[in-house]
Write a structure and sequence with these properties.
The complex is a heterodimer of chains A (116) and B (114). With 116 residues, chain A is mainly beta. Chain A is built from no helices and 11 strands. In chain A, a hairpin with a 2-residue loop joins strand 7 and strand 8. Chain A is globular. Classes of the chains: A mainly beta (116), B mainly beta (114).
């Protein structure tokens, strides 16, 4: 099946630090990538949708300047949490969708972000 | 109208039993309904998916039943095993399988007792 790699899998950093998370589609071209946030025992909350070469579309209530998304190529999207604070601690998951309309989204294994 | 309602919230099944998880939606524009399985600390993995032109789809021990008129769909796990213990999410989307955002259900935590 399609493989989506997310890195790092776990990061701990001090408050005020900016953290970059990478999402790569390893065996297909991802025209669209999605970024989710998941709190413990809850569902996935979509943060933003990014299309290659375009600006990301953010969901209501998600701060664009806080969560910077770049989708510079068909295999890589990045999420940067700027000036992270403890309330940004969460599980962040990306997914990728290919160019074929009948293929589903494939998810990465997530990044556990802990801000001290 | 964009919601997908999932039930039950949690489910305990004996090994070998049948696990059934239900989802309901309102938006008739939805045309793709995937189910994802998620283990702790991992991302969701696609289990099985269905489109509204089919009433049932089976892959191994997993079956989706789809009722278009009732706007409901369900996941059946036959011969449930302890390794099936995970959280299951239904989802719905429109305009193709992956291009547009998924609307996820709230999840069902399944525990299969050995």
């Amino acid at each position: 099946g399609a493989v989506v790699s997310q890195h790092p899998s776990w990061v701990i950093c001090k408050s005020g630090t900016s953290v970059k998370i990478e999402c790569r589609s390893l065996d297909f071209q991802a025209t669209t990538m999605f970024w989710y946030r998941q709190f413990p025992k809850q569902s996935l909350m979509l943060m933003a949708t990014s299309n290659e070469g375009s600006k990301a579309t953010y969901e209501q209530g998600v701060e664009k300047d806080k969560f910077l998304i770049n989708h510079a190529s068909l295999t890589l999207s990045t999420l940067t949490v700027t000036s992270a604070h403890p309330e940004d601690s969460s599980f962040y998951i990306c997914s990728a969708a290919g160019t074929v309309s009948n293929q589903p989204q494939h998810f990465g294994d997530g990044t556990r972000l802990s801000i001290l | 109208q964009q919601q997908v309602k999932q039930s039950p919230q949690s489910l305990i099944v004996q090994k070998g039993g049948i696990s059934i998880i239900n989802c309901a939606y309102e938006n008739t524009a939805f045309d793709y309904f995937p189910w994802y399985q998620q283990f702790p600390g991992k991302g969701p993995a696609l289990l099985i998916a269905i489109r509204p032109d089919v009433s049932e789809k089976k892959e191994g021990r997993f079956t989706i039943s789809f009722n278009k008129s009732a706007k409901q769909f369900s996941l059946h796990i036959m011969d449930s095993q302890p390794g099936d213990s995970a959280t299951y999410f239904c989802a719905a989307t429109s305009g193709g399988a992956g291009t547009y955002k998924y609307i996820f259900g709230t999840g069902t935590r399944l525990k299969v007792l050995a």
